[in-house]
Amino acid sequence: MGFVHNNYLSDQRWIDSPLLFCPFFFLRSSQQLFQFCSDKSSQYIRLHNEERGRRLFRSRSGSASYGRACDCGCGAAKLSRHWIVSFFLYVVRRVLTREQFPLQLTETDDCISSRGVAEHSHRSQLATDIVNNMKADLVSFLEVPSTHEVLIMQGFLVPENPSS
Amino acid sequence: MYNTISIWVEQQKQHILQSKAEASEAEILEQLQKKVKSELKIDYLVTGSWSLKASQEAVRLLGPDYVNVASDARKANDGKFGKIPDESTWKLSEKPAMVYLCENETVDGVEFPAFPKVLESKASNDGTIVVGDFSSTILSRRIPFEYFSIVFFGAQKNLGSTGITPVIVRKDLVSLLTGKNTPELIRKLGLPVPPTILDYSVILKNNSLYNTLSMFEYVFSLETSCIRA
Q1: Count of CB contacts below 8 A, A vs B?
Q2: Sign (positive/negative) of CA torsion A46, A48, A51, A53?
Q3: Is the predicted pLDDT of residue A127 greater than 50, yes or no?
Q4: pLDDT value for A79
C-alpha cells in the first residue's frame, strides 16, 4: 500500500439556491428546471426542489412569507421582493468563494477537507522529508545521543513483539 | 533477535581474527561453531505477557539451547505476573549475546523503576547488548541510552497507530551487520538469517525507505509535528 495524500480540489457545487433569484442564471442552468410565473406585481419561479425554495425564502427574505404560493396557481413559491439585492449578494459571494477556494486548499494542510488520493513513491522528496522530520523529532523528544541511530521499521521485530 | 545474533557472530569472528590474523575461513568457521555451541546465549527477563511471548518466540526460532530465561516473575508471585523479582535472584548468563527486558508490561501493570543495577556493568563494561521494549513508556520517562544498545517501541501506544516500529540502535552495532559474508556465515553456523526487511543495516542504508513508507508513518510524522508544535 502506498502513502496517500489528498491533493485534488473538490468539485464545487454550482447548484445553489441563490441561482433561483436570477432569471439569467436560471435559464443557463441545466440541472434544475425553473419557470417564471409572473403576474402584475412580481415574478415567480417554479422550483424543481421545493425544499430549496423554502430554505431560500426563510433565510434571505425578511418580507416574503414562507411557503406562499404563487397567485397564478402554478404552485411555485413566491419570490422575494428584494431579489435584486439578493442576486447582487449572491454574485459577490460566489466570486469570493471561487477565488478563495484554491487559496484555502494551498494554505492549509488539512487533507481531510480536500478530495482525491495519490500515491507518493518512496524515492520522492516528500517521503524522505517525512522520514527525516520524524527522526529529527524523535531525537529531540527522547534526547537520543549521537551514538545511536533511529530506524523506522514497518515489520515487527522478532522475537520482540512490541507490547500494545 | 536476528540482528543481535548476527552482531554477536561478527564480534566473535573479529575476536578470532585478532588472536590469529592469518586464520583460514575453515578455521574461523570451526572456532565459531565451537563458540556457538558453548557460549551463545540470549537472556530474557520475563516480567509479563509481552516478555513471555518474546522469549517463547526466541525458543521457537533459535532453539531452547540458546535461550535463557534469567528471571520469571511468575515464580516469585504465586504463578502470576505482577512483581519484578529481586535482582539477586536473576540467573544471567556470563556473557550473553543479548539481554531483553520489557520496560513496561501493560497487561500486568509491571514497570521497571530504573535500569537494573546488575546490568549496568554488563552494558557499559562488557559490551553486552541490552534490548528494551519501551512501547508503553515512550515519551513518559527518560531513556538511559548509555546502557541500552537497542530501544524499540510500537507507535500504537503514544505516537500513532499500529504498523510502525521505531528502533533506536547503537551505530557501531549496525556497522557490524554490513559485512558481505555475514548471511552466508550465519547459515553455515545453523543460525537464522534475518529477512532483508528486518535487517538493521539495510534499513539504515536506505534511510528507512527500503520500500514505500506506509500511511502509518505519515500519521506518526503528524503526531510528532503536533507534539513539537
Answers
A1: 184
A2: negative
A3: yes
A4: 47
CA distance B186 to B202: 17
Choose the weakest-confidence range: A103-117, B140-154, B181-195. A103-117
Q: CB–CB of B211 and A122 under 8 A?
A: yes
**Residue A42, C-alpha cell as written in the block:** 412580481
Give the N- to C-terminal CA distance of chain B in Å, as an integer. Answer: 36
- The 10s digit of each residue's pLDDT in A45-60 is 443 344 444 444 433 4
Put simply, the answer to whether A164 touches B162 (Cβ < 8 Å) is yes
Interchain pair A131, B172: CB under 8 A:
no
Amino acid code (one letter) for A95: V
ipTM value for the complex: 0.84
Query: Which residue has cell 552482531?
Result: B7
Decide: helix, strand or coil at residue B110: strand
Got the DSSP string for B143-203?
--TTT-SEEE--TTTTSS-SS-EEEEEEHHHHHGGG-TTHHHHHHHTT-PPPPGGG-HHHH
Residue A123 DSSP class: T
CB B142 within 8 A of CB B134: no
- Among the partner-chain residues A142, A151, A155, the one whose CB lies closest to the CB of B208 is A151
The residue ranking higher by pLDDT, A75 or A85, is A85
B68/B94 Cα distance (integer angstroms): 11
What confidence tens digit (pLDDT) does each residue in B10-35 have?
889 888 988 887 878 888 899 999 99
How far, CA to CA in Å, does B229 sit from each of A135, A152, B160, B219? Answer: 16, 22, 16, 15
